[in-house]
Amino acid sequence: MNGQSPGCFAGMFSAWRWLTGLFTMPVAARNRAGTCSTSSAASAANGGNQREGVPFAALPAEVTAAIAQCLSSYADLCAFRRIDKSRHTALSHTVLLPILIRLLPIVAASLGLGVLVEVPVPQLTQGVAVTVALTRALIEQLSRRLFMLERGGSWARWKPVVEMLYLLRGKRPLVLRDDNFGVFGSRAAFMSETEAVRQWKILSWGATVNQGGQQRPLMDGDSILNQWPGYQLPSLLDSASPLFPHAPFDPADPHTQLDGGTYPNYTSMVAFIVFDRLDEGNHINRIRHWSSYCRASAAYFRAGDRLTASHSDAAQWGAAVFDQKWEDGWHRRLVVLGSEAMGEGHMAVIRLTRTNGRRVEIFTTESAPHDHTRTVVMRVLGDHLGGMVWRQEDET
Ligand SMILES: *[C@@H]1O[C@H](CO)[C@@H](O)[C@H](O)[C@H]1NC(C)=O
Hints:
Layout: H1 8-19, H2 27-33, H3 39-45, H4 61-70, H5 74-81, H6 93-109, E1 117-118, H7 132-151, H8 159-168, E2 174-175, H9 178-181, H10 187-192, H11 195-204, E3 208-211, E4 214-217, E5 219-220, E6 223-225, E7 231-232, E8 235-236, E9 256-258, E10 261-263, H12 266-280, E11 285-292, H13 298-308, H14 311-317, E12 320-325, E13 331-337, H15 339-342, E14 348-354, E15 358-364, H16 371-381, H17 383-391
Parallel strand pairs: 1-2
Antiparallel strand pairs: 3-4, 5-6, 6-7, 8-9, 9-10, 11-15, 12-13, 13-14, 14-15
The structure holds 2-acetamido-2-deoxy-beta-D-glucopyranose.
């Protein structure tokens, strides 16, 4: 995230004195917005909102340009501001605003979610005078976005699910606005929520699915809309499930249970639910299915092998992998090939199931003759199993 050029540091130091007044919001606004440091609380308490010092506009142009170039993250901005705690009042909000506006797309692009998630700068209503109050409100909104995006943890885990949401929403990118960032009432509530859950709450806000001919929200608080019987509350496990003895336990994205199924992380649980919605709504079509009950066959063995292949194998296929298991030995895996493998806005999914037999199903958004899908299927399954699945040669 810190793409700074070496020359920047000198620039920062020649300008730091003017920048130390950056966050002089009232304490209440700061707490709501979740801005960065507590050091300005003291300055606010000392009457920190009075204006003094050199106006930013009076700085030489090369200094102001250097400042803007050096700050490539919200944390930078906060660190920068902490250099001098004694002077918090030198800068006006009208100076801070363009810096935050410049930071937002940089930080959004660094999340690893690709082009399907947009985080627009809140818009000023045209023709309205840019008053101090308005500027302050904008700074607050921008600060909240930057804080949540930067401190929210690793967002990239959601890339395959975000691609599913794109399809579910009729090929519209996800646009994160005030409502998305408003799902948490306070910075503390945001920070204390499990990382994967807090990210999903923001990403999924406003997502709806068709349930019995009616659009209903996908999430209702912590509950997720399952096809049957409706909203259900997932339970996040606080230690590894015996069904996934080898899956790493990550408290940021823990093993999760929902409706009798167990998942090696919360992300997998969401991926299965959203995928079912895609399938049900015909946003993706099942074009092939194959099954084998022939334990001695090479294809049967190979299907089992693909169910247990490691995640580094999946990375080589260019796929994301999600798992679901039941107590009785059922195991289901989604091998998701998104934009990178299938081209922008397209997806193929290989669903592998172990019951008392082996089952492979192929889903795709690509239209016939499915050449691209065929290629990725062969890559993941190999020519033998891939060929049998493609010709739908069941083994009984
Ligand atoms: C979640 O589990 C799946 C397997 O179901 C795995 O492929 C994926 O990498 C895990 N996600 C994270 C963020 O660890």
